[in-house]
Structure formats: C-alpha cells, structure tokens
Amino acid sequence: MTPPSAGIVRIGGASNDAGAESTLTVDVKAKPDLSSCLRSAAPSSLERIEVIVNANDLGDLYDPLGLAGLVPFLKAGGSIAVRIVTDRGNSSIDLGPVSTSFLLAGLNAESERKEDGERVLVARKSILSAGQKKAASAKIRINFPEEKKTADAPIKVTLDDLDDDDALIDEDELLTGGAIAAPPALDEEARAKAAEGDDCGGRTACDNCTCGRAEREAAEAAGEDKKEEGHTSHCGNCFKGDAFRCASCPYLGKPAFKPGEEHLVLDLADDL
Description:
By secondary structure, the protein is an alpha/beta fold. The chain is 17% helix and 18% strand. The chain has a 6-stranded mixed β-sheet with strand order 2-1-3-4-6-5, with helices on one face.
C-alpha cells in the first residue's frame, strides 16, 4: 500500500469530495484533537495538508495553537491550506485565528483566495529545518575592510594646539581705539587741600548754599573784610549736633544746645 502523500483534516461537520487513495483523511470533533490528529502518518511524509472547517466552527473548534502540531508531518517546502466553508449569504468572516495559527506554527503565509463561496488560506513550510537555519545564520559573515596598521608611534599634543586665543578680543584694545574718550586728569592733591573744612569739596558754593560760604565768597569778591561778632546759622541745623552740622560749622565738636544758647556752648572749654 502506498503511504499517503497528503492529509485532509475535517473539523466538526465539514465535508469534502473523496480524496485520492494516497490521501489520509481524519475527522476532528474536539478542539484539543487538532494537534494530534495525524499521528498515524510518518514525520515529514506529507507534501500538503488541507484543513477544512465551517465558518460557524472557526471560533469554537479551530485551535490556532494546535495547527503547529501538524507541521512536523510536512515535508520541507510542503503547504498547509485552511479551507473555510461559508454560507452563500455570509461573506463576513474573521480570518484572524487562521493568520495567527500560521504565525505561531512558523509557516510563511503564501496566498488567500475565494473558491465557490469558500475562503482558502495557504501557508508553506520553510525548505530549511530549524537546525539548518541556525547553521546557515552562523555561517553568515560580514567582511569589513581592514584598516591599515601602522607602527605604534607616540601621539604628541602640544599646548600650542590648544591655543585658541586668536578668536578672543582684548578688552584693553577697545579703550585705546578711540571709541571711548579717556576722562580728564584731576589734581587730587589740590582738590583735597581746597576741600579741607569745606562742605563743597573745593568747588564753588552751591546755588542753594546754606552754610554761609556763598556770602563769604561774595564779601571776598567785593573786597570787604567781614567779621562777624557772632555766628548766624544759615542751615538751621547747628543746634542739633554734629550729625546735622556742616563741615565748616564753628560748633563742630560741641554738644547740642537749644536755639538762643549759642554763646554758652561756645564758651565751654575742655578740662584737660
């Protein structure tokens, strides 16, 4: 008797035309039986396997994980076809379980077609076995161009290589380039001498002078030798104390007093 070269798996109540004598036909009544339904066949002996299932039984009896149990009975390069029998008026079928079973079984999806109201999805087993795939991937070698090796020579790095001062700007050159005029020179010694005992710092009297300097300068310009018997406060702060007095105030160093008691304060003398 010639061993079968093809297998037909009928799931549930699915039917098909009688196959040739060399075809192994089995019926699957329960979902867990799909993976072991072809155990009577020899491993790697079938050229093709056809699974027939009604569209109504696709979700209940078709096992996406069980299809992987049929792959060992296929020859290298053999095909598995899942034929879904549909009603004439029913055109909407969820083919997700079939596509998932091909992926889980390691099959390469090949085609999908319609035949007399039926949907047929075909996948093929790889020509190479798992061991051959591993061996082929191990033999893949990528040759990169080798770099020319030169004699090992010490690498010298000098400080001049790291000098990037050429890109910097000297701030002093901005001052000497004429962009900013230099301030006029001041005679600090002469100014300090003129400022001794003078609130105005050696300058002329202020426009709103309250220390009496404006009157003295006016008298000196007129050639008058003005001598005051008593000091008249022009700022009105002489009696408050040194914190409020001018630099030329005659009461500097004296205690605060009440207005009208200037003569008493001026007559005070140190005991030492």
